Amino acid sequence: VQLMESGGGLVQAGGSLRLSCAASGSIFSTNAMAWYRQAPGKERELVAAISAGTYYADSVKGRFTISRDNAKNTLHLQMNSLKPEDTAMYYCAALKSEGAATMEDLLYGMDYWGKGTLVTVSS
Fold first, then answer.
1. Second label for 14, Cα 20 to 30 Å away, from 30, 59, 84, 113?
2. Largest CA distance in the chain
């Protein structure tokens, strides 16, 4: 399984970006997928996930939307009202097992990772 992110870039505060994660291999609509980010000097954090339902970190709730196009095996993250504190490398990840993911799965158990796409939000 390979995951490849795209869509990052430089945007002004208040702007929008749409990240995509193309999955190749055995990833199906029943595999949980998620977006993470890591800012310089900070730990990686879970931003949003899609499994039986969706999950959003409090810091992005109402601004970011996670979705998946099962026909194209692609995960998206629509990011609106971007803030300088959203600046980070964004990664997508997928769980190997099918079915609903637990929070423990999302935090510690993701099996496949992309290489990331950089998002920079200027003030």
1. 113
2. 41
Q: What is the DSSP string of 45-113?
A: EEEEEESSSEEE-TTTTTTEEEEEETTTTEEEEEE-S--GGG-EEEEEEEEEEESPPPHHHHHH---EE
pLDDT for 38-91, tens place per residue?
999 999 999 999 998 999 999 999 999 999 999 999 999 999 999 999 999 999
* Neighbour-count burial of 63, counting CB atoms closer than 10 A to its CB (0-12 exposed, 13-18 middle, 19+ buried): middle
**Gyration radius from the chain CA atoms:** 13
CA-to-CA distance for 110 and 118, rounded, in angstroms? 20
Say if CB 54 and CB 75 are below 8 A apart: no
Q: How many CB atoms lie within 10 A of CB 29?
A: 12
